[in-house]
Automatic annotation (TrEMBL):
Occurrences of domain Cathepsin propeptide inhibitor (ranges): 26-84
Annotated InterPro entries: Papain-like_cys_pep_sf, Prot_inhib_I29
Name the record gives this protein: Silicatein
Keyword Signal: yes
Regions that span the bilayer: none
Species, as recorded: Geodia barretti (Barrett's horny sponge)
Keyword field contains Signal: yes
Protein keywords: Signal
Segment forming the signal sequence: 1-16
Amino acid sequence: MLSVLVCCVLLAVVRCEVQYQHPEEWDLWKTEHGKSYQSQREELERHLVWLSNREYINAHNANSDIFGFTLSMNHFGDISDTEFESLYLSKWTHNKTNNYTKYFKSSSSVSDHPSSIDWRTKGAVSDIKNQVLFCCSV
């Protein structure tokens, strides 16, 4: 009797379709960013990460007046912070024990310099751009 009950429960679980939260928004995001997954399990895992990132973005944007900017979902929406770091960020780490002040000699005092510099007006920096994959890889 117990084995029949277990079989029925397993059959019900196997036949149960996964219900995604915000399915229209999820499908639209996948279409916009050309996302497809190898299996239903992988899609479910990616969907859960996407939901977590969506929740983070919504929480941030609810307080955007504090931060001074808003966030939006991009093509990295289905990867976690850890995955993003391992895939796209540099493996180089700064040696905090070095004392770099020995390389810089100052012949003037701090008061001889302006309190701030807007490098945009000097043409030293440009607008933010999508630097694509592995821009900083070592």
